[in-house]
Specification:
This protein has 462 residues and is α/β, with parallel strands linked by helices. The protein is built from 14 helices and 15 strands. α8 links the parallel β7 and β8. α4 packs parallel to α11 and α13 crosses α14.
Length: 462
């Protein structure tokens, strides 16, 4: 067994550290678990109390190649010994140029491309919008319901979910418009992916043409698979229609692959599976293998729109982060890691489909490759979101040695982001814990339903 719990979770050292955290750290940063990490390797995390957990979170989709992979650690250490920081805008260095070249070659499309390296996903989104506006000389940006694009001001404005991401932070950026995302499970009129895609695209066109005017739209930004919004893949036909429309109207199409990139969906990028060639892509998370690094990659003529000095920053494309990212790309080179990713996805798809049949609380299961999620509802008929159930399962998991994350606009989704290096045994052990949690959750729901629906006793108020 990989899971080893030496203390109740959280253990005494984690509790003590949490007390210090509350005293000295701002309230804002959240924690999915109350355990403090000591070290991590592969798909396993060990906390300060010596408890070992199987990690189904991957640092929010960052550790795709696993925690502290030897090749990435070695590359970063060797670069750190040569130079920790120089500033690409002061003395350029080869690592930045080489990583840009490899990203241009790896991203979809045979057209000429260029790249900009920055520090995080939100920064990539901010720069992608700046570049699109500079290129088109237009202002409006269209985003989608349930989307998440970051926490800085433009990225936060593009993000759909209000609480906690936007609460108390207004006013937001102007000239941002929101269109419906083809979320078939929650589409008002119901229907399959084809019908939802057609109706959703018509609503998108109506917003652009009636409320904004196509000639005023600089960019459309979309996640090929919703991340924080609940791991909902956009149908291929919807993305194809979006791409055709943007090309016809000379609108820059931005694919936010910050959470979907670097093997997370079974291919290097989700767009590769969906036959989409966006004008710009935003990348982060899995790119650096744990080092803070992000990128905007796209058509050369668009990327070159800002004047020299118009984009960039002190730390963007840090040499140590670039060295780590080059090592990450090397790990994908022979295709074996992507094959492993697809195999993990197939196992997850089968297991989650079984849960959908067995447990009434699971309203929907979905995803792409090993990027998988369960959506919880109080009743399958009305599909009312059950945030409490998702939270209870997440807690059961960490108390029994598996770390998972919740997600979704309504907080009722549990997502799985297992490192791609996880063995089949580690995956199954973690899923066994999740299944045990579902079994414990289901009888309680049944009892609560019966208690809520029973006839009042004599003398009892209804």
């Amino acid at each position: 067994m990989t899971i080893q719990l030496r203390t109740p979770v959280p253990g005494p050292k984690s509790k003590e550290l949490m007390g210090r955290r509350r005293r000295y750290v701002a309230r804002g940063p959240f924690h999915a678990t109350p355990v403090f990490l000591a070290k991590a390797k592969g798909a396993v995390i060990e906390d300060v109390d010596g408890n070992r957990f199987i990690d189904f979170a991957s640092g929010i989709g960052v550790a795709n190649v696993g925690h502290s992979p030897d090749a990435v650690v070695r590359a970063a250490a060797e670069q750190a010994a040569r130079c920790l920081h120089a500033g690409f805008n002061v003395t350029p260095y080869e690592g930045y140029v080489e990583l840009s070249r490899r990203l241009c070659e790896a991203t979809p499309g045979a057209h000429a491309k260029k790249a900009l390296l920055v520090n995080c996903g939100a920064e990539a989104v901010e720069n992608a919008v700046k570049i699109a506006r500079c290129h088109t000389k237009r202002q409006a940006v269209v985003c989608f319901d349930h989307g998440f694009h970051g926490r800085t001001y433009m990225a936060m404005t593009l993000t759909s979910k209000a609480k906690p991401y936007k609460l108390g932070f207004g006013p937001f950026c102007p000239e941002v418009y929101r269109a419906p995302f083809p979320y078939a499970y929650r589409w008002p009129s119901g229907g399959d992916g084809v019908r939802v895609s057609l109706e959703c695209f018509e609503r998108f066109k109506e917003i652009v043409e009636a409320q904004i005017g196509p000639a005023n739209v600089a960019a459309v930004i979309i996640e090929p698979v919703l991340g924080e919004g609940g791991f909902v893949p956009a149908p291929k036909m919807f993305l194809a229609s979006l791409q055709d429309y943007c090309r016809a109207q000379r609108i820059v199409l931005i694919a936010d692959e910050i959470q979907t990139g670097f093997g997370r969906t079974g291919s290097l990028f989700a767009c590769g599976q969906m036959d989409v060639e966006p004008d710009l892509m935003t990348l982060a998370k899995g790119l650096g293998g744990g080092m803070p690094l992000a990128a905007v990659v796209g058509r050369s003529e668009i990327m070159d729109a800002p004047i020299e000095g118009g984009v960039g920053g002190t730390y963007g494309g840090n040499p140590v982060a670039c060295a780590a990212a080059l090592a990450v790309l090397d790990l994908f080179e022979d295709g074996s890691l992507l094959a492993r990713s697809r195999a993990l996805g197939e196992r997850l798809e089968r297991r989650l489909a079984g849960w959908r049949k067995r447990f009434d609380s699971v309203g929907d299961v979905r995803g792409l490759g090993p990027m998988r999620a369960l959506e919880f509802v109080t009743d399958r008929g009305n599909k009312n979101p059950d945030r409490e159930a998702a939270g209870k399962l997440a807690r059961y998991c960490y108390e029994h040695g598996v770390i998972v994350l919740t997600a979704g606009t309504y907080g009722n989704v549990v997502r799985i982001l297992v490192p791609l290096c996880a063995s089949p045994e580690e995956l199954e052990e973690g899923l066994d814990v999740m299944e045990a949690g579902l079994k414990e959750l289901e009888p309680r729901r049944t009892k609560e339903k019966k208690a809520g629906s029973r006839a009042p006793a004599k003398g009892e108020r209804p």
